Amino acid sequence: MPETMQTIQDGIYSIKIKGSRRIATLARKDSSLRIWDPKRSKLGVMVIKNISIPIGRDSRVLYLGASSGTTVSHVADIAKVAYAVEFSPRSMRNLLETCKDYDNMIPLLDDANHPERYSPFVEPVDVIYQDVAQRNQAEIALRNARWFLKDDGYLIITIKARSIDTTANPKKILEAEAEKLTSDFEIFSKIDLAPYHADHLAVIARKLPQEAEEK
Amino acid sequence: MIEPLMHIWYGNIDDIGFLAHDLTDPDTLIQNIRTNHSPTDIDGIDIRQFALDKGIFATESDYMAALRSLTIARAKHLVKKSIGPDQLIISAIKALDDTNEITNMLSERLEEWYGLHFPEIKLKGEELAVFVAQTCSRDNIEADDSLYEISRTSMGCSIGKSDEDILKNTALTLKKLYADRAKLEDYINNSMQELAPNLTTIAGGLLGARLIAKFGGIKRVSEVPSSTIQVIGADNALFKHLHGRATSPKYGLIFSHPKINTAKWWLRGKIARAFASTVSKAVRVDYYSGNIMENLESDLDATIGHIEKKYPNPPVGKGKGKETSKGQEQWKNDRQKSTRSRGNRANTVHRKSNVLDTNESRHRKV
Questions:
Q1: Are A83 and A58 in contact (CB under 8 A)?
Q2: DSSP 8-state secondary structure symbol assigned to residue A15
Q3: How far is A19 from chain B (nearest CA, A)?
Q4: Fewest Cβ atoms closer than 10 Å to its Cβ: which of A173, B13, B15, B307?
């Protein structure tokens, strides 16, 4: 049992347990307390750094790069529904195990570069959370946002400098990638994920209203 | 399981342009659904709202439950589809490398351990394991055995029954590991012969399996250019080259093949290139058609023969390094030195521009 428990935002709690401060969510299945580890979850780092996360009880979230399901599970604890897209079959095996405890997590073994392939299963969403370590991260975000993100919807994207270019200056790479998003998004905040994750930047942005666009 | 759920969506909904399909391949179906409807319509269809409006589902939670079952079934189906026979081989070759490491470690340990009792014995590795498992105590050595004399005057300690038993135990484990290693090699060779006969003919089962493991699957090996196959495995050298600080590596994993590592030093690069290109052809035929290519190896040998004939002597030129006779002497001496000094030498002597300026013959394409 935690010594203290405060609500940071709807569904996310700051608790004190054995003297240390931790963040946690309540499990969808049985409302048990689930500690959220920022070392394994970049979204967790943002919470710990007191950034307001635009995910609430009514949010429909598209999660690109779900991996084995650690962060997605916390998103599913907080939000209304989480569409979890993951490319690797090996990770999907673990993700399917996680899905057993969630009636609002939808697993999709697909390549985020081709949103048309999972479009029959995904509805327009309020938030896209992206954590894929790929060179064309910005392009993937823009494409998925055009398909699925509502106007005024939010994009939360983690950019890993080393995935873009292993040699050049990380700061410059991160700035350049963030720039690419400005065609479709208004950038709200940029968060350095250090010391938990080195050379990573998280960007929270809001979709600009669009007229007719090509996909 | 997947069919009845899919029909809920894709069944008879043709008033907005969906096609009613007889479900065979989920992937084609999915491709059709939105791209057919209106490729320029950015909003697409709100599937959830559509399903509720049309009365396919009574409530949101009914929709979610069906969607969840469907996507879980689909994901399981796709995961299963993704595992091919090459994945089994990849795990086997990794198991082989692990077994090698463990065997080496344990055999060293047995040497040290048994050496406390019988330091004079010259046996190592598998031979030692067999000996210890069978005989162990010096007292068990027969008078007519060649080891009898030295066992009588050994400076090793004496061992009791429990010491002997535990030594035998470890020796038996080690014996089994050696046998397992051989079994793994056989399994890999046989599986490779079945999965990729042409690749096995050229590179052999083990190197072929290592290439597949490095790329993560036989499909990937068939997709990359032969130059990638040539250098894969030489990661440090490759990245150094890509960052502009060194010449390109001549070979990576493929160096373990005798056709390359027994060749004369000035021919290795050219032979590596020819070898990699043959491997590329072989693996593509294996992946796509499965036919046996005739003359695959003899053609490669003929090419190597031409290379050897064309360059019978090592190149001698104006530049520093291997080209000069002094450089050759240096090179021979270096081979005995540590890898670290060899690495430093690569940095200072073989700068990219240096090599391009001096000896063109080294880069003449065969």
A1: no
A2: E
A3: 40
A4: B15
